[in-house]
């Protein structure tokens, strides 16, 4: 007997959940690595500073909450995460959800939802469900990203043009656009000029000096211009009174049963989007570096980061694709760069917080308008519309629901529709080849006589050979059942060959079990060949047998 080779050993708990920081330090970390990580951390901090404040303001909270999330959450993501280069912090993708949560439940509700989402993410990671989150279809990710981009863009028009609204700005897109359109006569020329200056600087730096921190340069120059010219524009100081010069003391949110039940739907939405966004960001980092992240370890870190951020009053945290890519391009060697990025942001709060009071809101709106433009993935959107009707349908359904209904509904509906289309496509790949002629349905009196059994396929002219190839599962059962029922003349024996079936589920096994039972009841000898390993186990469990 030949020896059976054992399959690859499953990784241990320690291997799955050891932070990449530990891995990097074990490999050896020297002065050159620290120097590279200091430069990378500083570069990312320069990018994260205006973004964190802008995302917080667009989400309907004070800018310091965005900085707190970047400092506390970003540090924990880098220290505990499963990616060497992931940068955690507030993300533009969350603006829609956070703003809606703040509008309905207040800032306290947001903090509770963030805390609960952290617990959910931690549980998802420890249950090793991160692999399944990667199965979100590409048209869904493009659709919800493009939808978020449209909503972010619309949410910034108020500050971009310095509009004066008669009442609160509506949340839904269409009423928002109607309200903004009616307020167009109140456009502020100074605010529009500051925004145009910021956008122009961002584009110019990106075109001529792509390695320079364009976002920070644009915000700094726009702030200096507004201050020097004494422009009548709204700033962080005039709207929020500036930002505190230190982090707040940690405080446990209200976790009463009533509040937990109330905020659980929002927490689930935060956790779902955070998991998707963070793992997508980790995949981007892997593609840029050739490394591999630990998805479940990353989710545990994201969960811990959200819990910690909520304790300090910060926004929800996730992996950020743009800042992670900046970290890689800046030459980071490991997670210490992400930790240092948080330290640099903390220094800004401790030393230069009063400066933030002079930042015009129009400049921060300009930053987010550029971010939304880059998020839209216009080329990918257009390509998917041309790829196939199925992909286009999933894309448009997701995009439409995100814009006009709800982000979570868009993701879930897109995923469900994409899954149904995948099942349909997979069901078309099944093939049934038989050594007998098949009877056409509803044609018992066919003019042509049935062809005899193909003797070349079997040594016994009274033995039918049925070869099934392809994924045999609930989606393809009807096609196989129809082929089995169409076997013509009654054979003395039947052989069902499954050697070309890579996968078989319980529905398929149940069909074969019933077919075997009916055939044996008629006195037909029947056996199943070619099933090995898991296929044989499923068949035996459901009584089909393989002999």
Automatic annotation (TrEMBL):
Q: How does it sit in the membrane?
A: Multi-pass membrane protein
Q: Name one GO cellular component term.
A: membrane
Q: Does this entry carry the keyword Transmembrane helix?
A: yes
**Would the keyword Transmembrane helix be found if you checked this record's keyword annotation?**
yes
| Transmembrane intervals | 38-58, 70-98, 110-129, 136-157, 177-205, 212-231, 263-285, 343-373, 393-423
| Highest taxon above the source species | Bacteria
Q: Which UniProt keywords apply?
A: Membrane, Transmembrane, Transmembrane helix
The record's subcellular locations are: Membrane
One GO term under biological process is: transmembrane transport
- In this chain the STAS domain maps to 465-547
- State the protein's name: SulP family sulfate permease
* Organism this protein belongs to: Enterovirga rhinocerotis
Source organism lineage? Answer: Bacteria, Pseudomonadati, Pseudomonadota, Alphaproteobacteria, Hyphomicrobiales
């Amino acid at each position: 007997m030949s020896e059976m080779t054992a399959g690859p050993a499953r990784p241990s708990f320690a291997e799955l959940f050891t932070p990449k920081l530990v891995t990097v330090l074990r490999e050896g970390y020297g002065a050159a690595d620290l120097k590279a990580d200091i430069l990378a951390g500083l570069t990312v901090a320069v990018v994260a500073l205006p973004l964190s404040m802008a995302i917080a303001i667009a989400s309907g909270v004070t800018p310091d909450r965005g900085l707190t999330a970047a400092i506390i959450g970003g540090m924990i993501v880098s220290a505990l995460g499963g990616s060497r280069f992931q940068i955690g912090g507030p993300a533009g993708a969350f603006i829609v959800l956070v703003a809606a949560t703040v509008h309905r439940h207040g800032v306290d509700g947001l903090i509770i939802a963030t805390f609960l989402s952290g617990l959910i993410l931690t549980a998802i990671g420890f249950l090793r469900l991160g692999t399944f989150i990667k199965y979100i279809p590409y048209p869904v990710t493009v659709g919800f990203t493009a939808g978020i981009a449209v909503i972010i863009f619309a949410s910034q028009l108020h500050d971009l043009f310095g509009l004066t609204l008669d009442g609160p700005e509506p949340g839904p897109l269409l009423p928002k656009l109607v309200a903004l359109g009616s307020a167009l006569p109140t456009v502020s020329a100074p605010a529009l000029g500051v925004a145009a200056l910021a956008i122009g600087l961002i584009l110019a730096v990106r075109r001529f000096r792509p390695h320079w921190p364009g976002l920070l340069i644009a915000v700094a120059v726009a702030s200096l211009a507004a201050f020097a010219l004494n422009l009548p524009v709204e700033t962080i100081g005039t709207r929020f009174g500036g930002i505190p010069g230190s982090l707040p003391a940690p405080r446990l949110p209200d976790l009463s049963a009533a509040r937990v039940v109330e905020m659980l739907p929002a927490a689930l939405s935060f956790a779902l989007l955070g998991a998707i966004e963070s793992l997508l960001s980790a995949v981007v980092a892997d593609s840029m570096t050739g490394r591999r992240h630990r998805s479940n370890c990353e989710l545990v870190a994201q969960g811990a980061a959200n819990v910690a951020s909520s304790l300090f009053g910060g926004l929800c945290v996730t992996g950020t694709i743009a800042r992670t890519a900046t970290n890689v391009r800046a030459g980071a060697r490991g997670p210490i760069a992400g930790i240092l990025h948080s330290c640099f942001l903390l220094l800004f709060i401790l030393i230069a917080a009063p400066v933030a009071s002079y930042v015009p809101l129009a400049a921060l709106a300009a930053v987010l308008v550029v971010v939304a433009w880059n998020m839209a993935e216009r080329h990918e959107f257009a390509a998917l519309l041309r790829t196939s009707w199925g992909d286009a349908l999933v894309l448009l359904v997701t995009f439409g629901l995100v814009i006009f209904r709800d982000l979570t509904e868009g993701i879930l509906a897109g995923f469900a529709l994409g899954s149904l289309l995948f099942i349909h496509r997979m069901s078309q790949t099944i093939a049934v080849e038989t050594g007998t002629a098949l009877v056409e349905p509803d044609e018992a009196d066919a003019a042509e006589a049935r062809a005899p059994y193909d003797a070349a396929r079997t040594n016994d002219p009274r033995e039918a050979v049925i070869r099934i190839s392809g994924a045999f599962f609930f989606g393809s059962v009807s096609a196989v059942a129809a082929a089995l029922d169409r076997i013509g003349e009654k054979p003395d024996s039947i052989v069902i060959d499954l050697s070309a079936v890579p996968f078989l589920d319980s529905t398929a096994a149940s069909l074969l079990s019933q077919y075997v039972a009916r055939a044996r009841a008629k006195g037909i000898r029947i056996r199943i060949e070619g099933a090995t390993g898991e296929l044989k186990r499923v068949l035996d469990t459901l009584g089909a047998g393989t002999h």
